[in-house]
Hints:
six-stranded parallel sheet, 17 strands, Rossmann fold, alpha/beta
Amino acid sequence: MGFKTIDDMDVAGKVALVRVDINVPVEAGVVTDATRIEKIVPTVKDLIAKGASVVLLAHFGRPKGKVVPEMSLRVTLPALEKALGLPVAFAEDCVGGPAKKAVAALPKGGVLLLENTRFHEGEEKNDPALAAGMAALGHIYVNDAFSAAHRAHASTEGIARLLPACAGRLMAAELKALNAALGEPERPVAAVVGGAKVSTKLDLLGNLIEKVDHLVIGGGMANTFLVAKGVQVGTSLAEHEMADTASAILAKAEETGCAIHLPIDLVVAREFKAGADHEVVPVSHCPPDAMILDAGPSTVAVLDTVFQSCRTLIWNGPLGAFELQPFDAATNAAAAKVAELTRAGKLVSVAGGGDTVAALNKAGAAEDFTFISTAGGAFLEWMEGKDLPGVAALMD
């Protein structure tokens, strides 16, 4: 892929401006999950080892161009210092006097965190003056925030066009994994797409049926496709008004040679709650007063066979109401199979999206996937085949 990494840059004695995503959850002034902070450590450590000083650019929350004290990045300093094992200086702004003064005081190999980029209205407008103000603080630009790469913001796209630019370790790993999944994958390729609504994933489905050999549709989305095929779904979540669209997707898949896999048996219940009384029925026998909450064991057996026949798999969305036992069974079983095949070196598996990561973690399968993307919106837009401005700027 046509982007530079840290290894292609001469960083010794230079100030590296590193765009990171440390938009972490905070409660009572304390970071409660430092995963995103921990993921930037390799990039920061490698830059320091190569002789650079590191200045971190990041957003936090949605202050909408105003200074909101509760959304100051200062709250992340203790977690940053713990993860890096180094002191981290802080500047009260990401441009102008405070930022320049803090950069000037930074020792070689030091780390500085600049204040929330979104305190400036120009950040989300990709204002050239703001980008130039940030660029003036350093010598090279490193983007390590794939999760923000779908936004054409001053700190993700504008600045990349003003300085020698490259991808950080996390960004490079993400792009490599995504290229292996859809760019230049080993075939056959399967995609698992779940979730509640077809309407939110039209672009995604439209792109995938032209790129993959097998498309597994689960969750509430599958119910809409069943409606399109004339199947009764009782009181299940389904977008009946999207039935024609689902029919069109099925027809297009037939044209492109993409095999679509829908549930062949169902786990149904009368209540949406954990431990609700439930039964397994054939796909054509959903009782009129019941709702579909998961795919059944025969469906899982078919998916096992599909996965075994493939070399690459991409996953976004659960197969059922994974938050509620026992309606997490299909997601757990399918995830376990993908993990097993990946461990055996028979499958390259890439997954992403909020619910997906939660479901795979719950299933205990996440660690065995080839790559798990924590980038929600950016991962989805990439799956939809859209250009990501923050990535495109690194390619130019």
